[in-house]
Structure formats: structure tokens, C-alpha cells
Amino acid sequence: MAIQNPPVSQTRSFSTVFLIEMWERFGFYGMQVLMVTYMMKKLGFADTKANLVWGAAAALIYATPAIGGWVGDKLIGTRRTMVIGALVLTLGYAMLWIPSNDPTLTYLSLGVIIVGNGFFKPNAGNLVRKIYEGDDVRIDSAFTIYYMAVNVGSMVSMTATPWIRDYVAQHYSDAMGWHTAFGSCAVGLALGLINYSLMHRTLAHIGSPADEQPVKASRALALLAASLVLVVVAAFILQSLLAAKICVYLAGIVILGIFFHLIRNAQKSERAGLIAALVLTVQTIFFFIFYAQMATSLNLFAQKNVNLSFDVFGTHLFNWIPEQYQNLNAIWIVILSPVLVAIYNTLGRAGKDPSVAAKFAFGFAAVALGFFMYGFGALSAVDGQVSSWTMIWGYGLYSLGELLVSGLGLAMIARYVPARMGGFMMGAYYVAVGISQYLGSVVANLAAMPENISSPVESLNIYVGLFNKLGFVGVGCTVIALVMLPLMNKLSRSHSEAHTPLPAVHSEEV
């Protein structure tokens, strides 16, 4: 907990966490933007296998923070765990830098990244909360800026790493291009760690009680051994699609079972909030199935069926690199976030701010329109290639939906789940999101390319078929969300009558 009269300002403490978070996201998104394409072009995976391997990795990346938060709070301290996570992530990206196309090394590298992310992600966010603990006026602004760090880091890296790959490949070799691009992720995070070492004194008074206690050698060795085991287990899951499938579906069954157990045994005043949280969590899982398309089917669509020339009124400005289209998500979020904040504030002052359930419905409608946009763009395709503008507007609508759904996920848990279950349910929510990431890769495989198809005209029909199906699923989700609105409003009223509303908790995975 932050002490009274801290020796440094909140702003300086916050800046330290902000900068290392920005560099950590630089590394993560720089790796993510290339990984599926790398597995196909350098490891020789079919698109179906590359999608599923990345889906399993994404599922584990979302699940491990539930463990890392506990390690920071109870075992070695929030600050220490965050720094260890950054070091482990740097090691994982550096392993991808090694000029080898051995799939086993890739699996192990991803396993290290999964463990590092588990240590880093929850503890960086916890430090921000602790810096502004008790300062309700400034914490919203702080998390808004913190969220911007995510998008600044991701925008820079998703632009830079595909360009680095192409530049180095052109001047040296294709293999060196891929591995140098991954290496830049390690270099970026190393710069973040150097910066942290220079500024770490600004966080000396912030952290969990465990930060103030020396770490016992036995505890450190046990944590190291557990981490190594987790790396090996993660690598095994990634290389075995059957193991990944079993783990994902078992996790889904366990989470549903936990929800029903909590609802059944909760006090009468708590049930309405828990039921509302369950309904909205299921809706969030459906959204993240759409979200998972960014690194899988939408990425591969850009490889085959998008005219990479960006033109305005017939004037050529520049060419995109296919992977860089994923960057449109972060760009649109930066553009749309202040617009939505202004709209929420205006409606709030008029007493007409929509409920979380209503925002979910609007979000699914926007996602549906976004996926239909690709089919609309296909109507004017030339030789099987759609305009870059099709991707821009499709990502814009999809990103608006993301802000309305994903941005409210953790806020929903904080609002409806009893405080005594809050920490556990936050972890369960992230595991649920991880499950949907894997399911998203399964959905992406509906557009798997048969080996005999190489013509963009033929592949366009396959991808557009998937995107139109996703659009109709989005329409279905919108209808269900609208039909559920009266029930959700009733549950929300019942919950509000029994509880004092909690402040929103911000999700950086917006």
C-alpha cells in the first residue's frame, strides 16, 4: 500500500510503470504480429496448425496472469514479480532471435513468453492501482494514460517489426530478417528494463507487503523450479493440438462449474449480480472469438486478398506490409477512445448513460458491420484483391465494438461480483478470455485454404464466406443481447438495491 507523504510524486512513480509497460507491449505485439505468418512461411505449418498453435498460446497468455498476481501479492512482491516478468519476457524474445527454424525452439520460446507475461501483466497494473490508492479523482485519468501506453507500444512495434523483417531480408537473408525482427522485441524490452533501473527509486514506497520482506532462498528456488516446469508444460501443450484442445475445454467446464457453484451458494442479495456477471462473461467470450481473427484469418486475408497500395483519390501514397494491417486496431482505438469518453460524459450528465448490457449490444452490432464490410469490399475487388480502405473501415467498426465490449469486461466483474470473490473472479474472467482466443483460432480454420487453391479470386470467396458468417453471428449476438436487456436491467437494479456501486476497474485489453 502506498504510504502517506511519499518521497516522490505520484506522477513520477506512475511514469516508471508507464514506460516499462509501453516497452513490454512493444515486445509482445511485435512478436504477435509476425508469429502466425512465421510458423507458416518458416516452420512449414499449414494455416490450420499455425492458427491453432497461436490460439493455444494466446489462451495460456491470458490464463497465467491469474497465477502471477498471486505470486506478486503473497510470495515475492509486486515490484519484484513485475521486473522478473520483464526479464523472462526478454529471454523469450531473445530465444526467437536465435537463427533456427526448429519448431521445438519456437514452442519453448513461447512457453517462456507465456510465463513471463503471467508474472508481468497483473503486477504492472496492480502497481498503478497502488500508486493512486484512495485517489478516486486521479485514478481514472491514470488508467486512461496507462491504457494509451499499451496502444503506443503496440502501434510502434506492429509497424516496425514487419518493416525490420523485410528490410533485413532484402539486404541480408530471409531467415535473418525474421529472427532480427523478433530480436528487436527483446531489444525494446531491454531498453525498458534499463530505463526502469534508472527510475526504480520512484517505486520504492509502492508495492505489496511481500516487497518489504527479503526473499528466502528456498522460496526463490521453488518459484524457479515451478516456472521451468510451467515452461515445459506450456511447450508440450503447444506442440500437441490434442492436449491444447483438452485443456481449453476442461478449463471452460471448470469455470462454468465455479460460476454455478458460487451462484448456488451465494447469499440471496449476491445472486443477481453473479448471474449478470455470468451472462456478460459469456457474451465477452463470444466477442473475443471475433477478436482472435486479427492475428489469424484477417492476417492471412491481408496476405492473399488485399491490394497493399494505399491510395487517396487515385493518388498512391505508400504500400502496407500485410502484417501491418493489424496495427489498424490500435490506431482506431486511439482515435475512438476520446470520442466515446466524450459521448459517455455527455450522456451521463443528462442521466442517459446506457447500461453495460446495452453497450454490449451496440458493440456486437458494430462488430457485425465490421465483418460485413469485407464482403462489401469484395464486390469491387480487382483480380481477387480488395482495397486497403476495406481493411481500414472494417477494422474501424470492429475496434468500436471492441471498446464497447472488451473495455467494459473487468468493470463488469468489479460492479457485479461481491468484493470477497473479486480477485478470484478477475482471474476466472481472464481464463475465460483465453478460452475464447483458442476457440477463435478454431473458427479461423473454417477459412483454411485447400492445397490446390492459389488464385486470389478463389481464396477471396473462402475468406469472405467466413467473414459473412461471423457477421451473421454478430447479428445473432446483438439480437440476444437486446432480448436479454430487460432481464439484465432487472438484475442490475436488484444488485444496486443490495450494494453500493463499486468504481469501474479498467481493462487494458481494450
Automatic annotation (TrEMBL):
Organism: Dyella japonica A8
Keywords annotated in UniProt: Cell membrane, Membrane, Peptide transport, Protein transport, Transmembrane, Transmembrane helix, Transport
GO CC annotations, alphabetized: plasma membrane
Gene3D superfamilies on file: MFS general substrate transporter like domains
Similarity comment: Belongs to the major facilitator superfamily. Proton-dependent oligopeptide transporter (POT/PTR) (TC 2.A.17) family.
Entry membrane topology: Multi-pass membrane protein
UniProt-annotated location(s): Cell membrane; Membrane
One Pfam family here: PTR2
GO molecular function: dipeptide transmembrane transporter activity; peptide:proton symporter activity; tripeptide transmembrane transporter activity
Name of the protein in its database record: Amino acid transporter
Listed GO biological process terms: tripeptide transmembrane transport
Membrane spanning residue stretches: 22-40, 52-71, 83-99, 105-124, 145-164, 176-199, 220-237, 243-262, 274-292, 330-348, 360-380, 392-417, 429-448, 460-485
Cross-referenced InterPro entries: Dipep/tripep_permease, MFS_trans_sf, POT_fam, PTR2_symporter_CS
